[in-house]
Amino acid sequence: MIVEKIIENGMGENTYVVSDENTQQCFVVDPGASLVDIMSYVNKMNFTVEYIVLTHGHGDHITNALTLKDKTKAKIVAHELEKEILLDKRKNLSAQLPTNTVELDADIYVKDNDTLKIGDMKLKFIHTPGHTPGSMCIKVDNHMLTGDTLFAGSIGRTDFYGGDYKKMEKSLKRLEKHDENITLYPGHGPNSTLKIEKMTNPFMR
């Protein structure tokens, strides 16, 4: 499994291309980064994009979801409780961004603990509300893409539409129970591990 991070310069959003080396199949997580940069990497590696997975529906994470879908014919995946935000440019905050506004409907809506196979990879979706109602983390083996739920040293904001700090606290306690050696890939900022976050992140103490 290969995890490639592509950073969007404006808001520092992390887009990830996660691929299976054996089958050359991949999925793209939160395509807020440049479509040119995403496709350049995918084409260079000769990958096939099977799915576009959204950890949540905020504009900086979904900017290029529809254009990437058009280019690759991949299906968009999101948590079922994120549909309201995805369909409304004001609620997903894309109306406030200098880039294009986005309103979209996912092709596949998942629930907590649902799984999805891509090549030899098994994705498990973990519902972690708090930043938004349908925020979720994606676990693949000993890797976890945490979106705007958990950052290195911090957490996602809870003061946007649908945010809830009490739910965020419960989500963090749930994540604490996973293997400490899991590598974390957040929606903004550097990678970390669950062990480091449990030791140093003030929101997880």
Rg value: 16 Å
**Number of strand elements:** 14
What average pLDDT do the residues reach? 96
CATH topology-level name: Metallo-beta-lactamase, Chain A
Oligomer: single chain
Compressed to H and E, one letter per element, the order equals: EEEHEHHEHEEEEEEEHEEH
Structural class: alpha/beta
Task: Kindly state the percentage of residues in helix.
Answer: 10-25%
Shape designation: globular
State the separation between the terminal residues, measured CA to CA: 31 Å
**Helical stretch tally:** 6
User: Can you identify the CATH superfamily?
Assistant: Ribonuclease Z/Hydroxyacylglutathione hydrolase-like
**Spatial ordering of strands, largest sheet:** 1-2-3-4-5-6
Q: CATH architecture, please?
A: 4-Layer Sandwich
What's the CATH C level? Alpha Beta
Largest sheet: 6 strands, mixed
Describe this structure in words.
The chain has 205 residues and is α/β, with parallel strands linked by helices. It has a single domain, classed as Ribonuclease Z/Hydroxyacylglutathione hydrolase-like (Metallo-beta-lactamase, Chain A, 4-Layer Sandwich). Helix content is 22%, strand content 30%. It is built from six helices and 14 strands. The protein has helices at residues 35-45, 59-62, 65-72, 83-86, 165-176, 194-200, and strands at residues 2-7, 14-19, 25-29, 48-53, 75-79, 108-110, 115-118, 121-127, 136-140, 143-147, 150-151, 154-155, 183-186, 192-193. A six-stranded mixed β-sheet has the order 1-2-3-4-5-6, with helices on one face. The chain has a six-stranded mixed β-sheet with strand order 7-8-9-10-13-14. Strand 13 (183-186) and strand 14 form a beta hairpin.
